[in-house]
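User: Can you write out an input/output pair for a complex, sequences first and structure second?

Assistant: Here is one pair. Inputs:
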Amino acid sequence: MPELPEAENIRRALARVMTGRRIECVEIFSPAMREPLTPLATAGLEKLTFTGFRRRGRYVIADLSDGRVLLMHFGMSGVVRVESSQIPRRKHEHVFLHLDDGRVFRFECTRRFSVLKVCELPCPGSVPAELEAFGPEPLTEAFDGEYLHAVSRKRNGCVKPFLMDNRVVAGIGNIYATEILFSAGISPLRPAGDLTLRECASIAAESKRILARAIELGGSSISDFRNVDGSEGKFAQELEVYGRAGMPCGKCGSMIVSQRIGGRTSAFCPGCQK
DNA sequence: AGAGATACCTGGGAGC
DNA sequence: TGCTCCCAGGTATCTC
């Protein structure tokens, strides 16, 4: 399921193969997604060129030559491919953008949680309005222990859903929040407001280390995720607690437990995480 | 304002 | 084997 490292790999791949390409025509096969796909048909995309690809959290922002953007979110089963038009359409490929080099940008989403839509920007170079309230990118200097400590004061909720809140820090989902808290040795049940500055610094540092490593390995191919070229990410092999409930912790040997926190399954090691 | 619940959707696995 | 039930996930939206 695509999180920040997966979105970053998709962004890099699309920047490599789609920058400068012109859209020739749009085909929509099944319009129902998180938001209807039908507006893409009348958005006037034909003859526009992709000028660049940015990322904000788990969203990829494709800049178009008329100043608008194509906003993409991959939900939990979104896949994009750029390949020959000769390859038959797969069952859950909902949109084709035919490009001027004869290839096709294909947007697949089995569970229909993805977003693909054209947005106006409030001003050139900015992000669509719905992304304006996002917190800092975890891989930038703005996200550090002091920031996390400051914004977590008076927050009584558990640290895990806090870390997964895009307004706190952009793009950390269930898999990486789980792994980050394990590496930082902090229980996902700890109230965010109780964290010390030192613990916040540890969370920030582990966030950067784990996300950078996952980007380097091409993401985690948990269930449905694939890269643009169809390859699988290799970070899944390095997951230490996610999906390992009932198995012994690799560090201390304690049994990894699973519990629903903030409505999400959360695995953690009671021995290592306090 | 913060926190929790819910809807959205499909495929896969468990249990009968 | 085939049926039903439940779970996975991010986000918007609702209520308290």
